[in-house]
Amino acid sequence: MADQIITCPNCQQQIPLDEALSHKLQEKMQSEYDQRLAESVKRLESENKQKQLEQEKQLEEKIQNKLKREVELQIKDQAAQAEELQKQNKAFQSQILELTKNIRQLRQSSEDKELELQKKLLESEEKIKQETRKRADEEYRLKELEYQKRLADVTAANDELRRKLEQGSQQTQGEVQELFLQQQLQREFPHDAVTEVVKGARGGDVVQVVIDKNGRECGKILWESKQTKAWSDGWILKLKEDQRAAGADHAVIVSAALPPNVTNYAYQGGIWATNLDCALNLALSLRYSLIQAFHIKSAIAAKDGKKDELYHYFTGPEFQRRVEAMMDAFQLLMEDMEKEKRYFNTKWSRQEKSIRTLMDQTGSIHGELESIIGPELPQVKNFSIEDGQAGQQEELLSS
Q1: What is the pLDDT of residue 69?
Q2: Residue 377: pLDDT above 90?
Q3: How many domains does the chain have?
Q4: Whole-angstrom Cα distance, residue 130 to residue 132?
Q5: Is the dihedral of CA 78, 84, 90, 95 positive or negative?
Q6: pLDDT higher for 212 or 105?
């Protein structure tokens, strides 16, 4: 039988039918073989994997069992150690309790002894205080009696000394004030002739002859110095007698004690009364009036009729008011001058303080710059030691 031929639908090649069947059968067998082989490999791999898992599981169980035994041993060991430590801790606690008890007993015993000692010390201290207080009271009484005796002796001696001193005290103080008044008049009026009246002679204490700038004698002022605690009207009559005897134009009593209702100065019974503070102002006013009167008298010397007018003018109330007005003006000028003096002294003191502060700050800045820059910094006058020493020497020389 002739071979049957079939045509390949893909390549159009003619293939005998036997060959095609043989090839197809071969491919089928190969496919089955490959499938069986793959299943065998897969089964072997699965069996190997299962064996490996079983081996790993067995190994893991062995390791876990070993670790479990080791952990159990450690737990037993730690439990044994904990039990031993607990036993030791109980023993330590017992010892601590015993020691605490002993310490408490010792402390209580010590506190009891300390309290007892403090009690004894307090008793001894109180006893010593009482004895000391008793001795001190006795010594104080003795010293008080001694002090009272000394005080009585000193008081008696002081009274006796005061009695003796008071006899010459007023005279001495009066002489000091008289000398001070004379020096003040000589200093303020150097052209005038200011002389002291000889002790024991009549005529007040100090005579001031007023001399004008041309050297002409213009009048005379008689000064009487008093240093007593109370004013006496008897001074006026005596000084007026001394004024007439000395031929003085004015008479002035200088006293710390002035007539009643008089504060600084006043015209009293034909004479002037003033305190020491206003004496120079009064002298300036009286001196000015004498110089003016002398010039007027000189101008009308040829007219005898004017002499009476001049006398009445000097002895009348108008002249007194003018002199008092001049004294008030001089007093105000002196007060203003004192106020200005205090103001400028305060102002100069503040300015000096500010200047010194500025100098100190400038010196500090210069010193800081010099410490940074060094000797290359130019020196500033009055900031070096030499300048300061030179300035101090100049101040010492000038003083």
Answers
A1: 85
A2: no
A3: 2
A4: 5
A5: negative
A6: 212
Among all chains, which residue has been given the structure tokens 């007219």?
303
Q: How far is CA 73 from CA 66, 67, 358, in A?
A: 11, 10, 91
* pTM of the predicted protein model: 0.39
Q: Look at residues 327, 298, 300, 284 and name the one whose alpha carbon lies nearest to residue 214.
A: 298
d(CA 250, CA 289): 11
309 occurs within a structural domain: no
Instruction: Give the torsion sign (CA, 64, 69, 74, 76).
Output: positive
Quickly state the pLDDT bin for 133 (edges 50, 70, 90): confident
Both tokens assigned to 366: 């210069």
CB 273 within 8 A of CB 259: yes
3-state secondary structure of 291: helix
Q: Is 250 left (phi over 0), alpha (psi -120 to 50) or beta?
A: beta
Lookup result for tokens 């005279």:
171
Residues spanned by the domain of 296: 189-300
Which two structure tokens, joined as six digits, stand for 281?
């102002």
Q: Are residues 208 and 246 in the same domain?
A: yes
Distance separating alpha carbons of residues 212 and 205, to the nearest angstrom: 23
* DSSP per-residue codes, 224-254: EEE--SS--THHHHHHHHHHHHHT-SEEEEE
- What is the Cα–Cα distance from 226 to 275, expressed in whole angstroms? 10
Q: Kindly compute the dihedral angle of the four CA atoms of residues 34, 37, 39, 42, in this order, to the nearest 10 degrees.
A: -120
**Cα atoms found within 13 Å of the Cα of residue 332, Cβ hemisphere only:** 6
| Main-chain dihedrals φ then ψ at residue 178, nearest 5 degrees | -60, -45
The torsion region of residue 270 among left (phi > 0), alpha (psi -120 to 50) and beta comes to: left
375 in the same domain as 293:
no
Kindly give, in sequence order, each residue whose CB lies less than 8 Å from that of residue 323, ignoring residues fewer than 6 positions away: 267, 285, 286, 289
Is 215 a domain residue?
A: yes
